[in-house]
Amino acid sequence: MTVSVQHADPQVSERIASVRSFAAKERAARLNRASGLPFGLNVVLHRVNLDALDDLIALGLKWGADRIELAHTQFHGWALHNRAALLPTREQVEQARASVARWRELLGRSVELVWVAADWVDATAKPCMGGWGALSLTVTPDGTVLPCPAAAALPDLDPPNVRDRQLAWIWRESKAFNAYRGESWMPAPCRGCALRSTDHGGCRCQAHALTGDATRTDPACRHAPDHHLVRELGQGPRRALAYDYRKGGT
């Protein structure tokens, strides 16, 4: 079982989530621990909660997590519209990265501590979903099958449905799952990049969100022709939060 939490402070967590949920999540973690099943804690990181990273890891340990995933916000959809309030500073990211390194040394192999990099800050494309159609799939409530949870936003994808086709066919043969699988689809500079088998060209949804073209190199990458889009946005003025989640007001 995996539980997501927004902050180690219950009040701040619930202000960010806009719903009273912290106590229920704590209870779910306790029940899961009692059952003996594996338990993971997931945290989406951004400017508001990144400074609480040490407390979030400590919370995961307190709740008995076997795996703690610390994943920086991917800027598309709602997050793209609010990037000025969510994008962390480079100093925040570097301090958090150092904290993760310390915790990994302390914990060893007792807890899996996953750090999903801040791609806009690091200027390095994420290996989104481990590669398109490489490791996982998503089945939506209506039966639509997607290579990643956000892929429905991509135009002309024509995702298949489990009511029409078997999963084996969908995985191996469908247009949607083969659209960005492997390397043949890649444009320059991805096609000749030494990282192409590691970052898989980055995130297709982010490329589409920022450029309007899902086939473009992910602009988060420093080598991308469109990297200036991310650089300009990241270097622009940071909008003050309309609501100070740490203090409970503006």
Brief characterization of the structure:
The chain has 250 residues and is an alpha/beta fold.
Give the secondary structure arrangement, pairings included.
Blueprint: E1 2-4, H1 10-17, H2 22-35, E2 40-45, H3 53-62, E3 67-72, H4 78-81, H5 83-86, H6 90-107, E4 112-116, H7 119-122, E5 138-139, E6 145-146, H8 167-173, H9 175-178, H10 196-199, H11 204-211, H12 227-235
Parallel strand pairs: 1-2, 2-3, 3-4
Antiparallel strand pairs: 5-6
Can you offer a commentary on this structure?
This protein has helices spanning 10-17, 22-35, 53-62, 78-81, 83-86, 90-107, 119-122, 167-173, 175-178, 196-199, 204-211, 227-235, and strands spanning 2-4, 40-45, 67-72, 112-116, 138-139, 145-146. Strands 1-2-3-4 form a 4-stranded parallel beta sheet, covered by helices on one side. The longest helix has 18 residues, at 90-107. The mean pLDDT is 90. It is α/β, with parallel strands linked by helices. A hairpin with a 5-residue loop joins strand 5 (138-139) and strand 6. Helices cover 38% and strands 10% of the residues. It contains 12 helices and 6 strands.
Strand content: 5-15%
Tell me the structural class.
alpha/beta
- Biggest sheet: strands, sense, closure? 4 strands, parallel
Task: Tell me the Rg in angstroms.
Answer: 19 Å
Proportion of helical residues: 25-40%
Key structural traits:
alpha/beta; 4-stranded parallel β-sheet; 6 strands; 250 residues; 12 helices; globular; two-stranded antiparallel ribbon; 10% strand
